[in-house]
Amino acid sequence: MAPHEVVTRALAREMNDLCASLRRVLGLLVDRRGDVTHVILGDSLRLYLPDIGRLRAGEQRLRGLRLIVSHPGGAYRGRKTYGLESDLITDLEKLQLDGVLQLEAKRDGAPGRLAFGHVMPAQKGRTGARVHEDFYPNFEALDLDFLFFVEDLEDQLQKAFQRVREAEKLKSDRGIAVLVGVYTTAKSVWEASLSELEELCETANVSVADVIVQRRRKIDPRSIVGKGKLEEICLQALHLGAEILIFDRDLSPSQLNAITDMTDLKVLDRTMLILDIFARRATSQAGKLQVELAQLKYALPRLAKKQEGLSRLAGGIGGQGPGETKLEVDRRRARDRLARLEKDIDKLSKQRNLRRSQRGKRNVPVISIVGYTNAGKSTLLNQLTQSKVYAKDELFATLDPTSRRLRFPREREVVITDTVGFIRDLPDSLVNAFRATLEELDDSDLLLHVIDAADPLLERQMQSVEKVLRDLKLDEKPRLLVFNKCDQVHPLDAERLGEGENAVAISALNKEGFKELLKKAALYIWPVNSGSASPSDSSQGWSPELN
Fold first, then answer.
1. Is the pTM of this model over 0.85?
2. Which DSSP string corresponds to 48-112?
3. Assigned domain for 438 exists
4. For the chain, which terminus, N or C, has the lower number of CB atoms within 10 Å?
5. Are 193 and 148 members of one domain?
6. How do residues 404-421 score in pLDDT, each as one tens digit?
7. What is the CATH number of the domain that holds 221?
8. Number of domains the chain contains
9. For 21, what's the count of Cα atoms within 13 Å in the CB-facing half-sphere?
10. Does residue 538 lie in a domain region?
11. Segments forming the whole domain that contains residue 191
């Protein structure tokens, strides 16, 4: 055929004759010169394409081959409209074909209807319709300069791909991800969870190319989203140039292995992303040890048995038996490292206990700041003590506990400590790994539970923090609710939040509400009837001082 022809009438007629007589699907692969490279005979319903290699196909280029298929007319059982078969659409997308032309072969071999499909440039937020179909009632209606069409299409694909890549490269140096949320809960719940996952990606410096949400009555036990949807998601990631899939839930080892087997993309879940942030943020020896411990505990059951990594390290000629696989060696080394980390962290825990006991002998009260991540805990510590602890509007800005002295009136002093922020559905492995850090809370005389008053989901965040405190058996500790960022809410709402003996409304950034905060904190630590300074005593002022 000439390069500009999709198919000639003579060739279409011959294909339809053969298809009608054989009652089987017949296909041709044709290159851009118009030469037939493959003739494929299928069964009565579908075509099975041969392995055609990668040729020139890539993320931004097409294969250089088009597929022409003659389908028996009776194959369209009860369909209202004529269109491409689903398996042909899948082949078109996966193989990046130049196009697919489907011919309807009537029983007498006469040409019937036609359908032509091609891929479209990827667009953010769209996973389903990446194939465009055109319908033609007869052969005469097919009027297409194929060579001009496919060159123009490939130019559009390249431009769209480059736009996505250039935009994302400006945002991130740690990869481009597609976020996948699969939920059985109400929209208000999963929207907050997904928004938080995007914040985690921003904190990890991972750029988000697309967010895909699936609502299900029941989670697929093997692949979370189902095999068909997973293929769609992987294709979307390919078109957008993403290298990472991040699921907004924890994946079991079997689910992680199953999904990894279906795609070459890097697969992460929510906990893996949090662990990555922790690993980048930890600065002290204790923090680094605790992060590594959490990573190993989480990764050990997920060491998958991949065929390419199972070369025998011993055995064979001159050996006695099969020897250890690489997987077994990895697991043994991981367990040895876990045991070593546990010992090191126990030593650190004993050192912390010694320091706390010495501090206790001096009868210095301890106030610990707890709360949801990014609620403003480090900012509060800095403003109260005139310190310069790292504080930023991002999740998990603080991993290592920081303690400062805070002077109250009448020469009273306390030690105030900032701790790692909590988050909803915080895995037990993370809580356990950070036990050496969270042990600081055991000796606290008062917990300042800092809450982001401007967050619409503050009640749910409060519940998440309370759950972690219960798990740590700290729910009996005295607590003062500190509603921060009240400069971002209506004054009446701020006043309502600060009502009650165990609550106060402040703005840590603007140093508003500190007087009331310190008064109420003093009442918890030094009750009035114990002979301590009265909260109404303003002779020395209530401004904190750095010691």
1. no
2. -------TT-BTTB--SEEEEEEEEGGG-TT-SS----HHHHHHHHHHT-SEEEEEEE-TTS-EE
3. yes
4. C
5. no
6. 888 787 778 888 888 777
7. 3.40.50.11060
8. 3
9. 6
10. no
11. 172-277
